[in-house]
């Protein structure tokens, strides 16, 4: 976690330092409170037993007890406030960076895989919790142990050294051994949690289809079995730490007994011995309490390592520094695009300039969408040449391409919000006339009339696809990429939309590349032709 924090530039360093200082202060005041209370009670009892109770000044120690008690409460409250503020600052540094790196490495228009979503949700949350639940308690336990050992030294330096060695062995050595053993289990548990999330999401998203097929119950049982497996794994991960906590508590009792016995043998003042024994017991108890949450350290450490791997600069997608000033003419010369570890698409060659309508056709799965993704600079090419206005893709900054290209996927995604907000997402300053013209181009102006305050989810799948095209038109790109724009549409409606899009390319001096599904072809590749739509 410290390495990750350093790689982020040590955000909120001063706030964290203050939180750790408050954690140490809270622990010191807690030990001092118990030690002074023990001394006060023992001294008062001894004075009363000797008949000198009337001469015993209880004002100073009772004032000290109240001061330590109030100070401990205030310091602990302040530690929580400052610690959470520091953690939120770290979160504000981690989350945008993780999302940016995932976005840069994500290929194509597909949604983030469940594993990457788990990275954002689980790993980042685990690291955030680690700062509060591991680092801060560790500082507090260390401070408490030092104060307790110092108090025991007032009884006997040799006893203090013995307690110190026992503390190192039981409260430091044992947890470290458990942490090393728990690391592999934490990795497996994180993987299982990601798969569980994927299973549950799949069941929820496809509940209707699963119910129609009569397998919804079986799918839910499989997800439930995985949930039980994850819960059992969590219990197995935590059990050794619970056992270690009990062992540390027993060791604390033995250490306190050693202090008392040593005080009797050495004839040390009973009040001092009582204070030292309680302080020792409290220090071991603090270590015991922290051990119960050390499984958080195992998870946070594993999560931190995974985040470090993802945040390495060399993991991000490669790109040049050249800025594209125009996306046209677009040229692909024998372009091949890698898909997965072994597959590939191509070679594909085409030229697209102002006013052109280029169709990529072929059977399902031949790679039409992959070619669109490469044109949008969402995938690097493996071989061949792809250029925008004469600038090769390998030399350009992908963001400059995306600024001049818009994509309407086959299954567009919409964020929560009104339809008008969704349509103007890529161009917030779009006027009502711009939105109306885009809706008219996809023959949705009458359907959407009076419904722009509704959510996109209120529309059918075919309507949402056309809304995706309208959203891309509103951006007014130089090059519009459409993935299966006419799939499922009746012939007459498809022809009207084709004519409107053709008119748009001529009037706006733009270009369109679109894909279509050819079920009758026997060729296993992507066919390219310049369409002759009439406007």
Short description:
The protein has 535 residues and is of the alpha/beta class.
Total discrete domains: 2
Q: Under CATH, the topology of the largest domain is which? A: ABC transporter transmembrane region fold
The ordered string of helix (H) and strand (E) elements is HHHHHHHHHEEEHEEHEHHHHEHEE
| Alpha carbon gap, first and last residue | 61 Å
How would you characterize the largest beta sheet? 5 strands, mixed
Q: In angstroms, what is the radius of gyration?
A: 34 Å
Number of DSSP helices? 16
Shape: elongated
Oligomer: single chain
CATH architecture of the largest domain: Up-down Bundle
Kindly report the name of the CATH homologous superfamily of the largest domain.
Answer: ABC transporter type 1, transmembrane domain
Structural class estimated from helices and strands: alpha/beta
What share of residues are in beta strands? 5-15%
CATH class of the largest domain: Mainly Alpha
Task: Write out the strand line-up for the largest beta sheet, numbering strands in chain order.
Answer: 6-7-8-3-9
Strand elements, count: 9
**What is the arithmetic mean of pLDDT?**
78
Unreliable sequence segments: 519-524
Helix content class: 55-70%
């Amino acid at each position: 976690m410290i390495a990750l924090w350093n790689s982020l530039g040590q955000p909120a360093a001063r706030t964290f330092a203050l939180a750790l200082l408050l954690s140490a202060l809270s622990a010191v005041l807690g030990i001092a409170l118990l030690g002074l209370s023990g001394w006060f009670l023992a001294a008062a009892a001894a004075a009363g037993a000797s008949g000198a109770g009337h001469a015993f000044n209880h004002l100073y120690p009772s004032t000290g007890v109240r001061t330590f008690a109030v100070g401990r409460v205030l310091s602990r409250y302040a530690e929580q406030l400052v610690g959470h503020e520091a953690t939120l600052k770290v979160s504000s540094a981690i989350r945008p960076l993780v999302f940016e790196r995932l976005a840069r490495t994500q290929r194509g228009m597909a949604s983030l895989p469940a594993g990457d979503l788990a990275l954002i949700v689980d790993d980042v949350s685990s690291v955030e919790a680690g700062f509060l639940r591991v680092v801060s308690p560790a500082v507090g336990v260390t401070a408490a142990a030092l104060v307790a050992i110092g108090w025991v030294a007032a009884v006997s330096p040799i006893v203090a050294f013995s307690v110190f060695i026992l503390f190192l062995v039981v409260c430091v050595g044992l947890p470290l051994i458990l942490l090393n053993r728990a690391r592999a289990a934490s990795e497996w548990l994180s993987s299982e949690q990601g798969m569980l999330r994927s299973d549950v999401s799949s069941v929820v998203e496809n509940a209707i289809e699963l119910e129609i097929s009569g397998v919804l119950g079986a799918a839910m049982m499989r997800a439930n079995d995985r949930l039980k497996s994850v819960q059992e794994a969590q219990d197995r991960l935590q059990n050794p730490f619970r056992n270690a906590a009990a062992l540390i508590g027993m060791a604390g009792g033995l250490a306190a007994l050693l202090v008392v016995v040593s005080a009797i043998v050495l004839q040390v003042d009973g009040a001092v011995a009582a204070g030292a024994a309680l302080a020792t017991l409290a220090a071991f108890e603090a270590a015991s309490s922290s051990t119960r949450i050390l499984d958080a350290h195992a998870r946070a450490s594993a999560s931190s390592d995974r985040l470090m791997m993802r945040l390495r600069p060399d993991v991000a997608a490669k790109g040049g520094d050249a800025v594209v000033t125009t996306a046209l003419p677009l040229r692909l010369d024998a372009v091949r695009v890698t898909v997965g570890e072994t597959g590939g698409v191509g070679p594909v060659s085409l030229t697209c300039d102002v006013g052109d309508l280029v169709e990529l056709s072929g059977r399902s799965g031949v790679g039409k969408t992959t070619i669109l993704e490469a044109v949008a600079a969402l995938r690097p090419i493996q071989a061949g040449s792809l250029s925008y206005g004469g600038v090769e893709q390998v030399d350009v900054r992908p963001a400059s391409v995306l600024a001049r290209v818009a994509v309407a996927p086959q299954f567009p995604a919409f964020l929560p919000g009104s339809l008008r907000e969704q349509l103007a997402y890529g161009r917030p300053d779009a006027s009502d006339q711009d939105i109306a013209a885009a809706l008219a181009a996809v023959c949705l102006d009458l359907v959407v009339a009076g419904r722009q305050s509704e959510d996109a989810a209120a529309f059918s799948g075919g309507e949402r696809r056309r809304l995706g095209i309208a959203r891309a038109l509103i951006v007014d790109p130089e090059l519009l990429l459409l993935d299966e724009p006419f799939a499922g549409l009746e012939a007459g409606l498809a022809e009207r939309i084709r004519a409107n899009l053709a008119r748009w390319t001529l009037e706006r001096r733009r270009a369109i590349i679109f894909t279509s599904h050819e079920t009758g072809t026997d060729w296993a590749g992507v066919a390219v032709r310049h369409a002759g739509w009439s406007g």
